[in-house]
Amino acid sequence: MSPRIPCAVLACLLFAACGSSSNSTGPATATATPEPSVTVTVFAAASLAKVMPMEIAAFQAKHPTITVTGDYEGTQALLTKLQADGSLADVFVSADKAHMDTAQTKGIVATPHTMATNALVIALPPGNPGHVSGLADLARSGLKMSIADKSVPAGNYAEQAFAIAESNHDVPAGFAKAALANVATRPTDVETVVTNVAAGVVDAGIVYATDARSSTAITSLPIAQRDQPLTQYVLAVTVKAGAARAAQEFTDFLLSDAGQQILRAAGFGSPGPTAQPLGGGGPATPTP
Amino acid sequence: MSAAARSLPRLTPTRLVVAVACAIAAAFVAIPLVVLATHTSPGALRQALSDPVVLDALRVSLVTTAISLCLVVGVGTPLGVALARGRFPGRTLLDALVGLPLVLPPVVAGLALLLAFSPSGPLGQALQPLGVRVPLTEAAVVLSQCFVAGPFYVYAVTAGLSGVDRSVEEVATTLRATPWHVFRTVTLPLIRPAVAYGVVLSGARALGEFGATITVAGNLQGRTQTMPTAIYVAFERDPDGAVALAVILAVVSFALLLGVRGLHLARAAV
User: Fold this and answer.
1) Which residue in A has a C-alpha nearest to residue B212's C-alpha?
2) Which one of A74, A269, B122, B167 is most buried, by most CB atoms within 10 A?
3) Buried-exposed string B65-77: b where 16+ CB fall within 10 A, e elsewhere
4) Is there a contact between B218 and A5 if contact means CB atoms under 8 Å apart?
5) CATH code matching the domain that covers B50-269, chosen among 1.10.630.10, 3.60.15.10, 2.40.240.10, 1.10.3720.10
6) DSSP single-letter state for residue B32
7) Over pLDDT 90: what percentage of chain A?
8) pLDDT tens, residue by residue, B216-247
9) Nearest-CA neighbor of A57 among A70, A46, A45?
């Protein structure tokens, strides 16, 4: 993403999807079967960029005629693209329920299901130059922090965690306000928060436990369970999916034991008992 | 498009090719921008111009661009003179180096600046004793803008100088004027249109800078969030608001470039 002039920004974002096909693990030897191959495009939250290719590889091994390509960006950016053209993706995986609710209300997706949960951690650069030993330190004057933009699920969750910790009296009164005053940048995806911390340009950041786990360039401190907001990954097949059947097979796989096992191994939490399916059914089935 | 063709006195094959090329170029640039403009309304523009996020972004953009221009002119003028007039080893190399940011993707420029100025980078370490941290600050916005916009100014100065008749300067020198006096009273007035052209072009580029800025300066409203960054963020949150912002920036940039055109004509008339 390196648009140079503002209009190019819009143009690039609008048309990026056309040339996307990023991070595909490639078709799994489709030559073995005579069936025509189909391609399923998955729009998945940036924090799934490491685990989703593993899911895709496992799925394609079982379904040689289906090629799955993944596009990983901030959930809000993916939703914006889908609002412009709902046929850009066959599957949408949001990093929160709110964006999926919007997608459902606007008739972009069918019935959503919770795929997994995550947890927030405090990310620290090597050597912990800010001497951060817990949430309360994030409010210390002079500390520099990176948290995702409020429009990004991870950024919204981080603000929620600060407020929950304060209302639980786990941190002094006024903590949330002071901590937010220490924010030096609000990137548009959580991956950039990891990059900021790894480069040491900030003293701390709020990222997902799975981000911290998969990056060797940062260390992390846990945030108490009772201060965690509910971080849900919600998936759905799009109403305008070009490869609806294959998309359904892929989402079934993600929710199956095999798919869930891959998520657990990467550190994601189970969808929980309240999940699947969400919100009492999607919009009316697409009228042809 | 056809109006351009009709206004030609006689349609020769050469003229047809030229007319088609002009029409394609004009349509290529104009159509997307006109479509952009039709996606907004006076109400949306008014609303955007009273939004504190937009006002902050406009202020950050204009202030940083002004500072960047001062730095670019301050450093770029002697540099341009040296490149146009100097005879020193490595001049060609320096000339190519100065132009490198023109061809580098801005994101690469941002990454290079980030690595150099990060606490573990050489420049970051050099600045550490002074308590100066560049990444994610207004200084990083200015650095990004200077990096990508500087070459436009330097090359405008060298181009202007190459068109100056040196005998005029030599006459002044024989009248015992000091080199500085000659430059100030003879050379500078001659290249003033070129300098102004460089200032506007490089200012427009600095105003629109995005890739390097978001990489090394980050995104914080009121501090490092420039107009292009605000448009990028708004597009993901509120596409309609983003279009209004984009139209505002496009209008400001177009006005700047029309200014360039006027200066260009003025220079041609000199």
Assistant:
1) A2
2) A74
3) bebbbeebbeebb
4) no
5) 1.10.3720.10
6) H
7) 75
8) 999 999 999 999 999 998 887 777 778 888 99
9) A70
pLDDT in tens, B23-46: 999 999 999 999 988 988 888 888
Residue that is written with structure tokens 């949001």 in the block: A94
Q: Do A4 and B235 touch (CB under 8 A)?
A: no
3-state helix, strand, coil in chain B (%, to 5): 80, 0, 20
Instruction: Measure in Å the smallest separation between the Cα of B186 and chain A Cα atoms.
Output: 37
Q: b vs e for B21-60, b when ≥16 Cβ sit within 10 Å of the residue's Cβ? A: eeeeeeeeeeeeeeebeebbeeebbeebeebebbebbbeb
Distance from CA of A58 to the nearest CA of B (A): 32
**Closest-CA residue to A70 (of A36, A25, A28, A111):** A25
- Over chain A, what is the mean pLDDT? 85
Task: Read off the pLDDT of each residue in A126-143 and give the average, rounded to a whole number.
Answer: 95
Residues B211, A146: C-beta atoms closer than 8 Å: no
Q: Could you count the other beta carbons within 10 Å of the beta carbon of residue B220?
A: 20
Sign of dihedral through CA atoms B235, B238, B240, B244? negative
- Is residue B247 a contact partner of residue B40, using CB atoms and an 8 Å limit? yes
What is the C-alpha separation between A260 and A55, in angstroms, rounded? Answer: 9
B228–A9: do the CB atoms touch at under 8 Å? yes
A84 band by pLDDT with thresholds 50, 70 and 90: confident
- Residue B267: pLDDT band by 50, 70, 90 thresholds? low
Contact residues of A toward B, CB < 8 A: 1-7, 9-11, 13, 74, 76-77, 80, 83-84, 129, 144, 146, 149, 151, 183-188, 196, 199-202
CB contact under 8 A, B32 and A6: no
Predicted confidence at residue B166, as pLDDT, reads: 84
Please state the rounded mean pLDDT for residues A242-266. 95
Average pLDDT of span B144-161: 95
Task: Give every CB contact of residue B223 below 8 A, 6+ residues apart in sequence.
Answer: B60, B137, B138
What is the three-state SS of A136-164?
HHHHCCCCCEECCCCCCHHHHHHHHHHHH
What is the ipTM score, two decimals?
0.74
Between B169 and B154, residue with greater pLDDT: B154
Closest CB from B136, B233, B243 relative to A184 = B136
**B39 touches A: beta carbon within 8 Å:** no
Q: Do B242 and A3 touch (CB under 8 A)?
A: no
B92, B97, B99, B105: CA torsion to nearest 10? 150
Q: Say what the pTM is.
A: 0.77
Condensed to tens digits (0 to 9), the pLDDT of residues A150-190 reads: 989 999 999 999 999 999 999 999 999 999 999 999 999 89
